[in-house]
């Protein structure tokens, strides 16, 4: 299948017809200010903006501001403004790990809880500009904690509940968080995750590094008996009873920080991506409405955890800003079995379902019977995000899940972009399996070659964006120079995405994957450098090099070449030990899939590891190793190939 023409049923009732998209897109790039002056009003402002855009991508002077003189409160936009018209409508449908466990929360109830938590924050001495780390399972209180942070004008940093104490500590230090919001335990596939214990450990680690987290707010989830530190730790269910359900939202500037989200890059430690309030919310709400063609009263389910940007923008902020009903799912796709997702779709009459290719591939592998068990008749639209979707998985999603009835939006974006930048639009675009199709409003993609020369027409190259959009990240928290260096120095004057892409003869965009040392494992972004530094922190490891390799379900797997210290003997037990070590250092999502012992690593004479060669060996592509003559010791390559062939 090469192309699926847009169906009449998809156009029915849609706001964005093809003509309107073309018309709006033209305006959004020709009259950027006029376009956003109008669409910025889709959210409620306390003091309306007069200035729309003030941005520069110029090296040494990168600065991004949108709606800068406007003021607003994000939680008031997601809650208060809906109370009059939809106070009794469900805001969040929570589906627990256990299929027997679910809850519906109305806008009125959510509003009351957010006000309570805002008051608890204040009673703990946390307010405007303070940082709050949120380390939570997928329960409604995670959204409450985020919205309450926005309500008091604090800055949240959500840390995925699967990260280790070390990883959490690094993020709490980096953001100098005053408060940690966590739960006694999380629950995934029936297994308990010791969140509070991890949090305690992380606070100790940060304290040793010189940062003291002052307060901990603990949500009771499983009822586990967890130690509470007197004066530092507080139970949410107790504090909640002591405070009122009234909390005046803080008046924030459009450019006041809303959240920090740590994400992996090609070098060094994860970066704290900083998003601000006004532009981010406009982008979240605009993309949520138009990309998913979201209609009043519909149930929207984005399966992403709030620990990732997709969970921020499309599980919480986008749908709530639009007065929608959002599903939060605590569990995993294959528990109790691989029919769970479709069962949940039927149970809650989900209209729009948005997930990652890795989940699609895993469910495809489990067989069509699980899909057929559910009617899925409520579904109107399917979405994909996080990594390139292979045509086989796309076709299965389209045919088996959607029964050729539902459009698929393959949405390309990044933590840095705040929301979707490229995607098909359900009522406007013919679909090509694997293509992220066309840019959203004001997004100006450009392909450049290695030297930075702009490529025109059908071409393959590195993907840049040449002008700002409201949802763009503003800086790396506490390190503006790193922001400029990472995104604006490779091709001066342009935002470089780190992705490769192809534009075909119809002008459709195809994302080909990262061109830097970032890998995408089950839709999770990982810096190879992070895994390497975890490996070399083990006393028996002298050096390590990590690359991605194609993996049937995960998209990419983690392949590690490890050189041991002199005198250390390689063994399968040691491999297991290293896997455990990496899990402890970063978290289970960073578990090495393969470890190969490497007596030496291929390095240039200046000591740079040639990963290109390591990637080829990991892929079993020995004929394409390319030129190895610049290596300091070309013989190491022969050893690696031999070891690979012998699966050592
Ligand atoms: C990849 C997730 C192909 C890409 C929202 C990007 C995709 C990285 C797609 C960002 C897609 C995301 N097709 N690749 N539809 N969506 N990616 O920051 O490599 O976790 O740079 O944001 O995921 O990952 P992040």
* Proportion of residues in β-strands: 15-25%
Strand order of the largest sheet: 12-11-8-6-7-14-15-26
CATH class of the domain at 104-253, anyone? Alpha Beta
Mean pLDDT: 96
Low-confidence stretches: none
Looking at the chains present, what oligomeric state does this protein adopt?
A: single chain
Named once each, the bound ligands are:
5'-O-[(S)-ethoxy(hydroxy)phosphoryl]adenosine
**For the report, how would you describe the main beta sheet?**
8 strands, mixed
Binding site for Mg(2+): 536, 538, 541
Domain AMP-binding enzyme C-terminal: 530-608
Binding site for ATP: 386-388, 410-415, 499, 514, 525
Domain AMP-dependent synthetase/ligase: 80-467
Structural account:
It holds the Pfam family AMP-binding. The longest helix has 17 residues, at 107-123. The mean pLDDT is 96. Helix 2 (18-30) packs across helix 3. The protein is built from 20 helices and 33 strands. Helix content is 32%, strand content 24%. The strands form nine sheets. Strands 12-11-8-6-7-14-15-26 form an eight-stranded mixed beta sheet, sandwiched between helices. A seven-stranded mixed beta sheet has the order 5-4-17-16-18-19-20, with helices on both faces. It is globular. Among the domains are: 104-253, Rossmann fold (3-Layer(aba) Sandwich); 514-643, GMP Synthetase, Chain A, domain 3 (2-Layer Sandwich), CATH 3.30.300.30. The protein is α/β, with parallel strands linked by helices. Bound molecules: 5'-O-[(S)-ethoxy(hydroxy)phosphoryl]adenosine. 5'-O-[(S)-ethoxy(hydroxy)phosphoryl]adenosine binds at residues 263, 308-310, 385-388, 410-415, 436, 497-499, 511, 513-514, 520, 525.
């Amino acid at each position: 299948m090469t192309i699926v023409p847009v169906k009449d049923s998809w156009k029915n009732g849609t706001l964005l017809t093809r003509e309107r998209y073309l018309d709006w897109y033209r305006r959004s790039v020709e009259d950027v200010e006029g376009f956003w002056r109008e669409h910025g009003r889709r959210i409620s402002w306390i003091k309306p903006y007069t200035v729309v855009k003030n941005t520069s991508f110029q090296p040494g002077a990168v600065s991004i501001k949108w709606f800068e003189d406007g003021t607003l409160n994000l939680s008031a936009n997601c809650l208060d403004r809906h109370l009059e018209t939809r106070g009794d409508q469900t805001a969040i449908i929570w589906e627990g790990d256990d299929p027997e466990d679910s809850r519906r929360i109305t806008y009125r109830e959510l509003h009351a809880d957010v006000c309570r938590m805002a008051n608890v924050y204040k009673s703990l001495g946390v307010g405007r500009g303070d940082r709050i780390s949120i380390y939570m399972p997928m329960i409604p209180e995670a959204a409450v904690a985020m919205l309450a942070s926005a309500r008091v004008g604090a800055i949240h940093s959500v840390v995925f509940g699967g990260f280790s104490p070390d990883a959490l500590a690094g993020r709490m230090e980096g953001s100098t968080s005053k408060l940690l919001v966590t739960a006694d335990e999380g629950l995934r596939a029936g297994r308990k995750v010791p969140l509070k214990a991890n949090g305690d450990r992380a606070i100790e680690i940060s304290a040793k590094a010189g940062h003291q987290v002052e307060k901990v707010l603990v949500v009771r989830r499983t009822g586990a008996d967890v130690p509470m530190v007197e004066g530092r730790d507080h139970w949410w269910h107790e504090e909640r009873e002591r405070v009122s359900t009234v909390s005046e939202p803080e008046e924030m500037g459009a450019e006041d920080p809303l959240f920090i989200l740590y994400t992996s890059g090609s070098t060094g430690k994860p970066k704290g991506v900083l998003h601000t309030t006004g532009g981010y919310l406009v982008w979240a709400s605009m993309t949520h409405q138009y990309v998913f063609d979201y209609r009043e009263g519909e149930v929207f389910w984005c399966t992403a955890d709030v620990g990732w940007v997709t969970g921020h923008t499309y599980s919480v902020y986008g749908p709530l800003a639009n007065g929608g009903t959002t599903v939060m799912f605590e569990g995993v796709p294959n528990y109790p079995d691989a029919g769970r997702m479709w069962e949940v779709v039927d149970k809650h009459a989900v209209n729009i379902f948005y997930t990652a290719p890795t989940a699609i591939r895993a469910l495809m592998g489990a067989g069509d019977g699980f899909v057929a068990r559910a009617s899925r008749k409520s579904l109107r639209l399917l979405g994909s995000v996080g990594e390139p979707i292979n045509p086989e998985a796309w076709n299965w999603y389209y045919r088996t899940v959607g029964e050729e009835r539902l459009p698929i939006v393959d949405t390309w974006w990044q933590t840095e972009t705040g929301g979707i930048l490229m995607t098909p639009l359900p009522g406007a675009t013919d679909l090509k399996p694997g293509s992220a199709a066309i840019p959203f409003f004001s997004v100006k993609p450009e392909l450049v070659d290695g030297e930075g020369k702009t490529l025109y027409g059908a071409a393959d190259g590195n993907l840049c964006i040449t002008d700002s959009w409201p949802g763009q990240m503003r800086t790396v928290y506490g390190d503006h120079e790193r922001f400029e260096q990472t995104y604006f120095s490779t091709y001066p004057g342009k935002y470089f995405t780190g992705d490769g892409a192809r534009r075909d003869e119809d002008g459709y965009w195809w994302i080909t994957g990262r061109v830097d040392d970032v890998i995408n494992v089950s839709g999770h972004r990982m810096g190879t450098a992070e895994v390497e530094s975890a490996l070399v922190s083990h006393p028996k490891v002298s050096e390590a090099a990590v690359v991605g390799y194609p993996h049937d379900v995960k998209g990419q797997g983690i392949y590690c070449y490890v050189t041991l210290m002199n005198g250390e003997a390689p063994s399968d037990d040691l491999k297991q030990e290293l896997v455990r070590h990496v899990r402890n250092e970063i978290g289970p999502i960073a578990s090495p899939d393969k470890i190969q012992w490497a007596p030496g690593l291929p390095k240039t004479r200046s000591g740079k590891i040639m990963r290109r060669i390591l990637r080829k060996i990991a892929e079993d592509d020995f004929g394409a190793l390319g030129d190895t003559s610049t290596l300091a010791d070309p013989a190491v390559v022969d050893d690696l190939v031999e070891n690979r062939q012998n699966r050592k």
